[in-house]
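hiii, so i know i said id send this last week but things got crazy w the move. better late than never?? heres the sequnce for the chain we talked about at the cafe, plus the structure i predicted for it. fair warning i was half asleep when i ran it
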Amino acid sequence: METDQSSSQTDDAPRLAPLVLRGVVFDPPLFCAPMAAITHSAFRRLLAGFGGYGALFTEMLSSRMILREDLERSPCLKRRPGEGKLIYQLMASDTVRLPEIIERLSPLRPDGLDLNAACAAFPAVRQGCGSDLFHDAPRLREVLRVMRRSFAGPLTVKIRLGRQDEGWRGQLEERLDLIAGEGADALTVHPRFFEEKFKRSARHDLYGELAQKARLPIIASGDIRGPEDLREHAAHLAPAAGVMIGRMAAACPWVFARWKNPGLRVDHLAVWRQLCDYIAEDFDAAKALARLKVIAPYFARNFLFGHTFFKAAQGAPDLATARRRTEDFLAAGPTLVKSVSVGGI
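okay and structure toks below
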């Protein structure tokens, strides 16, 4: 899928010290973010072919799904040895059956569990998860307490800044204290308010303050495309103990490999074919088509006329047609953009 032009890290590429949580070493401390309908087993398998990360995250997993799915067959749950370290992210609203849920995952040997207290999407909020859990301190405390009691490995929490109102800073400090007090080992902070989703730039300038007040290692998330952003925002991102990349990994699954090897050359057609093969292997035809359509807008951002690629996938009535149309586009040697942007997706 790629041609390696350089095996050594350039002198100006950011070097990140390993992050050690409860004896588990994440080296480098680069993480692929949990992304709905994207970070399934097929996509993680593709990332594993490139490497360069310290750990992958699953999608946000509901308790009902964890208790129902086949651990060895479910594209959401199953893991392959080649993936490396894998952290399972839970969508929890209360402690009902929570120990059973965590025990259910134990045969998969998670390298960590992550609690999502960041998602502001209506389906999650309606169930009392994500941002709704963040705002309910007693419930958040009890969920974390049960998770810590039920799982001996690294426990992390993903948050945003809260609601954009006058009291946001005080509430955020209370939540940081609560999360540390209940035994979490690290915190992923996406420095936007819940209402903003991906609007306006992430507030990287807050990491210094947050790292001090959290009393936990902070993993930086939001608007980080690669090592160039760590160089550009070095002063603001220096307090972070790790970096999480989401949408850029969906567009460029080789982003972590290029961190160490900026000379890496990629065959986009071969990568896309590989992803299509993996998705077709893990999902039935209807679900495979749906997953392909979810990731197509991101992959399309690699090309000057990427909207043509996007339309080829979105308008396809079946998986075979989607593959034929998108592969025809790539086989024609489309012009690459100079800099990939995922803004607006």
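btw The chain has two domains: 14-260, 267-331. thought thatd interest u
miss u guys!!
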